[in-house]
Amino acid sequence: MTIEFPAGTVLGYPRIGRHRELKRAVESYWNGVSDAAALAEARAGVRAAARSALEAAGLSRDNASIPEADASYDHVLDTLVTVGAVPARFADVAELEDQDLTFVLARGDAEHPALEMTKWFDTNYHYLVPEIGPETTFSYRSHERADQVREAIAAGYSTRPTLVGPVTFLALAKPSDDAPAGFAPLDRLDEVLDTYVEVLADLRAAGAQWVQLDESALVSEVLGVSQTELVDAAARAYERLAQAEHRPAMFVQTSYAALPDAAFGALAKAGVEAIGIDLVRGAAPTNVAEFPGVRVVAGVIDGHNIWRGDLAAAFDKLTVLAERGVLVSASTSTSLIHVPHTLVDETELDAQLRNWLAFADEKSQQIATLARGLTDGREAINAELAAATEALAERARAAGVCVPEVRERAASDIELSRGDGDARAEAQRAALGLPVLPTTTIGSFPQTGEIRRARRAFGRGEITEAQYDEFLREEIRRVIELQEELGLDVLVHGEPERNDMVQYFAEHLGGFATTANGWVQSYGSRCTRPSILWGDVHRDAPITVDWTRYAQSLTAKPVKGMLTGPVTILAWSFVRDDQPLGDTARQVALALRDEVADLEAAGTGIIQVDEPALRELLPLRRADHAAYLRWSVDAFRLSTSVARPETQVHTHLCYSEFGEIIEAIDGLDADVTSIEAARSRMEVVADLHEHDYARGIGPGVWDIHSPRVPSKQEIAELLELALGGIPADRLWANPDCGLKTRGYDETVASLRNLVAATEQAREGISLPVA
């Protein structure tokens, strides 16, 4: 197949819409305000706007330069529905329209717990986990991708449809509950390939010249599948697909780490026409020049962060490959779903900082520039290369990027130990007097429309600071009273003052900036607005103390002080890329250490430092794990080791494969850890039992990422599973995560069931006599 690949492309584009049109349309449909036709129209509008924006950035509307940036709920779930891999437990709703089935799979309903959700490689994007077993059937179910090809052609565009590749789709799946021991989803590769052949034929018939297949599993060593197995599977899969009689040319892209030589060779030998490699996170395969007929799509502009690329260095990488005889194109290192749409909407952002940044549209412009350089020569883009180089130099010398006193403190030796854990536990039992199996929540309570309206009114100057503070105090009072009425044992103040668990701290720490419209999709309709960590980090005054002290004044029960941990602040911000992450984490940890000390001095007896992103940043290469876990664990302990033994330190982790990092979780030395466990039905308990985890643990018994209310019996069953592997005197009862995104009706009903199920479980517990 000799269809030419463009000199420059991006691997994907933000799909929520420049003004979050997808979020609003989906939630309007869920709420019954709009119908399916209105949702389809909104999605089509987002796709049209994406094509137009990429063309305006300089990418051609011809020869598949533009990926089909669907307004998608989740690309893994899209692929699941496309190949008809609906889990057997959803058989009674399998005849729903594709869109409605997607939402049931993603969100669950009264009869069906939702699919499990976890992080997409080492990013903050969450994907829905397919459930594959020997009984799973595959069939070409959803023709939406082919319909979108026709839609684009009708609008005058030759776009590139995208799917998760068959190897990655199965490698990211979990065995179904009924699968026998030893079964792995990759065992079903040959059957799923039959369906992929049908999909590719239909895409070709619709007019697609190229198809993009995401095979990022080939760069990972943390999927529970060996590299040898993945490479063998890729060789078998793409030999089969390449031989298909009717198909588009295949562009297999890989992101998030370097592609191993063996994987590159397997794809090239199989007959794949183009292979994408991430040259931001790693070097090119050493055998890249051994296959001169294969187009190498080199990811030289970072698609995972928002810094303006070093165009001269990027073009040098492309030039080196071209000089080795490689057919090379320029691309982003990852899909641009990880960055906001455009800097055009950031009119309030500091002009100097803006000059250092590039969002999706600006990165696409950079790719168009590099493509022009490949076509017309370096001289054609010298002005753009020079401008990017000067922006980098300006950034390096700007005030605040380096703060000597911050660096001096970060370089000092500070004790990271809080002493013996058993002795701390005894001191905390005496100080807190909690019952067996204490109940609590993770931190946030629902962010109601009233809260959001008050925040906007304060931001616009429509109410005074005093009026806003009084509103927040009344909200805190209401949340404390509600928790007491429900019978929870350890309370929270609900965090009404926080628009986001990271941004709130970014707004109060030096070295950060925040955006007005820098939204990215986290999962489904959930969007986040990551802050920009651009300089050395410092805290000039307490951040959370007054709100926590006020909440504690309203009750005799303990109220947790709530902080976001250093690793999560890094992971959920656009973090500076001009120094090692560990150095930046240490600066953030020192700022939080001061906050912990101030909370304790104000009388707070329980302090929670959330680290839901600890597993998220785990490198995809095992050789890099030890160094990462060392600095990430040390950063947490630096934040918390200032606390006295009788102060109970909590942490929270969610949507992670905990078994892979159980030793690191233990190493955090937190007194109590709450973790996601409801969707996986307590799978983590086996890991905890095997590790003989000796600290307090709260595996979540309520999946807060679904709108369904778990029954008392359902929660009781999960607690029983937990008690099967965790001693009762270490177990806590709590939801999976914070309640910010839930409504009050479902929150109250679910918490009533949680408390009732816990009381029932306590009746059957007999603790050993000391």
Characterise the protein shown here.
The protein is of the alpha/beta class and 770 residues long. It is 41% helix and 12% strand. The protein contains 26 helices and 20 strands. The strands form 6 sheets. The protein has a 6-stranded parallel beta sheet. It has a 5-stranded parallel beta sheet with strand order 15-17-18-19-20. The protein has a 3-stranded mixed beta sheet with strand order 11-14-16. Helix 24 links the parallel strand 19 and strand 20. Helix 14 packs across helix 21 and helix 21 runs parallel beside helix 22. The longest helix has 22 residues. It is globular and about 75 Å long. The chain starts with 20 loop residues before the first helix and ends in a 7-residue tail after the last helix.
Summarize the structure.
The protein has 770 residues and is of the alpha/beta class. The protein is 41% helix and 12% strand.
Beta-strand proportion: 5-15%
Give the rounded overall mean pLDDT: 95
Q: Radius of gyration from the CA trace?
A: 26 Å
Largest sheet: 6 strands, parallel
Shape: globular
User: How many strand units?
Assistant: 20
The neighbouring-strand order within the major sheet is 4-6-7-8-9-10
Weakly predicted, low-confidence segments: none
Individual helix count:
26
Helix content: 40-55%
Structural class: alpha/beta
Q: Give the termini distance in whole angstroms.
A: 75 Å
